[in-house]
Design brief:
The chain has 276 residues and is α/β, with parallel strands linked by helices. It has a domain at 40-178 and 204-232 and 264-268: Rossmann fold. Helix content is 47%, strand content 11%. It is built from twelve helices and seven strands. Helix 2 (41-54) crosses helix 3, helix 3 (75-85) crosses helix 11 and helix 6 packs parallel to helix 9 (205-217). The longest helix is centred in the first third of the chain and has 37 residues, at 2-38.
Length: 276
């Protein structure tokens, strides 16, 4: 009888262990499937562009009494739109957008002072720019600049801002760059949620240097230091996952839907954006 009880007890432990193992495997598999879905490049690229594209190059509506807000820039500007609109932060504004490719940068000044690469000059003569956008900039109450800032454009930004000739009653906001390093799905798929939450990738030193320059030349009421707000003050690394273990960026530079919610909550605590 004693041997029978012991045998049954042992079989029970094995069954419980097998069940726990199966449940754990099922949870890990589900988490991995969620991660793969969250990183789908086709879905994410469409998400990044959609909201920005709906109001791109559209004139302000004279019959809309809300203040006019104009966002100019590249895919960083597209990410900003999503970060704001996931939380309805800009609902009290008429929002319009202008897409200025990263190759061309947010620069307004003499062509001789431009740092656009020779291979990109033909493109940059055909697309939107601060020059072609200036009429709508003059009509806006709030102007937001967001870019994958290149070092040359960072150094020219004070002159660019001066050349915009903004009025005292216009508000300017400049978003610093953000980046999340190399996204390695194969590596993350083998991790638990707890492990994913602790993953941080290094920020390129040049990006941090450029960000430091922007912070030095622009007041807090204008500059949004995304690296500090998203990654932490003084950090040289950034999180790859949210506190809920959701992927922030699918490619290291652009935000997933979960990433946009996460980033929006943080950057809108800045003096520049919290006043909107």
């Amino acid at each position: 009888m004693k041997n029978t009880i012991t045998s049954r007890y042992g079989l029970g432990l094995i069954a419980i262990s097998t069940l726990c193992s199966a449940l754990f495997t099922s949870h890990v598999q589900a988490a991995s499937e969620d991660l793969l879905a969250a990183a789908d490049p086709k879905v994410n690229k469409a998400y990044v562009r959609a909201r920005f594209g709906k109001v791109q190059n559209k004139p302000f509506n004279a019959n809309d009494p809300r203040p006019k807000l104009l966002i100019l820039g590249d895919s960083q500007a597209q990410d900003f739109v999503n970060s704001a609109m996931e939380h309805d932060y800009l609902d009290k504004y008429q929002v319009r957008t202008r897409h200025i490719p990263a190759q061309c940068q947010l620069f307004l000044g003499d062509e001789a002072d431009s740092g656009v690469a020779d291979k990109d000059k033909a493109l940059c003569t055909k697309v939107e720019s601060l020059t072609t956008s200036k009429r709508q900039i003059q009509r806006a109450d709030v102007i937001i600049l967001a870019s994958l800032w290149r070092s040359w454009a960072v150094k020219k930004l004070p002159q660019t801002i001066e050349n915009l000739e903004l009025r005292d009653n216009q508000k300017l906001i400049v978003l610093g760059r953000k980046s999340f390093g190399r996204v390695s799905l194969r590596h993350y798929l083998r991790m638990s949620d707890a492990q994913r939450k602790s993953v941080r990738n290094p920020i390129k030193r040049q990006f941090l240097n450029d960000n430091r320059i922007l912070k030095q030349v622009l007041p807090p009421q204008v500059f949004v230091d995304q690296y500090t707000l998203i990654c932490g003050a003084g950090q040289s690394t950034c999180p790859v996952f949210t506190p809920d273990a959701e992927l922030i960026s699918f490619d290291g530079g652009h935000l997933t839907k979960a990433g946009a919610r996460y980033v929006g909550e943080r950057i809108f605590t800045s003096p520049a954006l919290s006043s909107l």
